[in-house]
Specification:
The relative contact order is 0.09. The protein has helices at about 10-25, 50, 80-85, 90, 110-120, 120-130, 165-170, 195-210, 220-230, 240-245, 260-270, 270-280, 285-290, 295-310, 315-325, 330-335, 335-359, and strands at about 5, 30, 35-40, 95, 105-110, 180, 185-190, 245-250, 255-260. The longest helix has 23 residues, at about 335-359. By secondary structure, it is an alpha+beta fold. A hairpin with a 4-residue loop joins strand 8 and strand 9 (about 255-260). The protein contains 17 helices and 9 strands. Helix content is about 50%, strand content about 10%. The protein is elongated and about 90 Å long. A 4-stranded antiparallel β-sheet has the order 6-7-8-9. Helix 5 packs across helix 6 and helix 8 (about 195-210) packs across helix 9.
């Protein structure tokens, strides 16, 4: 395994960095259930100069960029130090040391560090001094301001160690966020890198392909992503759902968190329920589930069954309005009885699932 680096989930910022790196170089990253293997060949297959300094393909690290301000000191030749530093990872990383960011710290060995310091003199010393502690160069919102102020994200501490590999991984956390129309950004965090990768990919795909008229909330898109994933994977998502899946919402000046209730997670990650919700396909029903108003499914079903006994020209205005509110898909309008029966079946499956949870 000397040609591989194995990384395990940690805090959400680190997790976002790992997912971002895997999105940048997917051919060098492979996911297992709760860890990711990274080939060391990755570090010799990066266009460091163009991707990190001359374009926005990854990030322009020079100067006061909005995400990693002053990571590279433009007054010195730290660009060259950074390039030689990262290129050294393929052959000179060691698993020794301590890191407050991850559970698997990696540092360059002392011989290589000495060589870099001798090659770049004062530029290397300043660079390595700057990246060894978590401050604003890693995150404008979360990092302390050059060790002068407490760090809110890390429990008001100012001296958290950052290993050499994490100093690189954290520079990719922005790539894992999905940018929304209001300029806020979303990342889905979980105890498994595989679950994280798939849920963020599905969330982005659903968000980008949704109908402009569909005013879906973040919770609804998250639920749709979980339903889609539950239908595709060969094992249930129930275990991971019961552990914790949270959404990080980043705005210009703030970071918020939320998660779906455990009960809802268990329900929508059940394969039978996920399949039926996908078959129904109505946002109104999904909203009902997310609000945990399961008993209203039977009320909806019986009202639709009564309406289905009438011809279209016999419907009163309030009945037409009810159908318009509840049903958007043409297939459900044309097959109202079938739609109602699916709602009754959904209610039955949810009740069975809840009884199973309680036992």
């Amino acid at each position: 395994m000397n040609d591989k680096i194995i990384l395990y989930p940690s805090n959400w910022l680190y997790n976002a960095g790992v997912i971002g790196l895997s999105l940048y170089k997917p051919n060098f990253c492979s996911f297992s259930e709760n860890y990711v293997e990274i080939s060391k060949n990755l570090f010799s297959n990066i266009d460091l100069l163009n991707d990190y300094f001359n374009s926005e393909r990854i990030i322009n690290l020079k100067g006061k960029n909005d995400i990693y301000p002053n990571f590279i000191d433009t007054s010195g030749n730290q660009t060259r130090v950074f390039i030689d530093f990262i290129q050294s990872f393929e052959e000179h990383l060691s698993g020794d040391g301590f890191c407050n960011i991850c559970s698997t710290p990696y540092y360059l060995n002392k011989d290589r560090l000495n060589t870099l310091n001798q090659t770049h003199l004062d530029n290397a010393e300043g660079f390595f001094s700057k990246i060894k502690k978590f401050d604003m160069v890693y995150n404008r919102l979360l990092g302390a301001s050059f060790k002068k102020f407490p760090n809110g994200f890390w429990g008001m501490q100012q001296s958290l160690e950052v290993c050499h590999l994490c100093s690189f991984i954290l520079l990719h956390h922005h790539l894992s966020f999905t940018k929304l129309s209001d300029n806020s950004q979303i990342f889905i965090n979980a105890p498994s890198f595989k679950v994280m990768y798939e849920l963020n990919r599905l969330f982005r795909a659903i968000y980008e392909t949704r109908n402009a008229n569909d005013r879906l909330s973040i919770r609804e898109i998250l639920a749709m992503s979980i339903i889609d994933y539950a239908l595709k994977i060969p094992v249930t998502l129930g275990y991971w759902a019961s552990v914790n899946i949270e959404v990080i919402i980043k705005t210009k000046d703030n970071i918020d968190f939320f998660s779906l209730p455990d009960e809802v997670m268990r329900i929508i990650s059940d394969k039978q329920i996920a399949y039926l919700l996908s078959e129904i396909g109505e946002t109104s029903i999904l909203k009902l589930i997310l609000s945990q108003k399961y008993s209203e499914l039977t009320d909806y079903a019986y009202k639709i069954l009564r309406i289905s006994l009438k011809k279209d020209e016999e419907l009163q205005d309030f009945e037409k309005s009810y159908l318009k509110y509840l049903i958007k898909l043409k297939k459900n309008i044309n097959m109202k009885t079938d739609f109602a029966n699916k709602l009754l079946k959904l209610y039955t499956l949810i009740e069975e699932k809840l009884k199973g949870v309680e036992v």
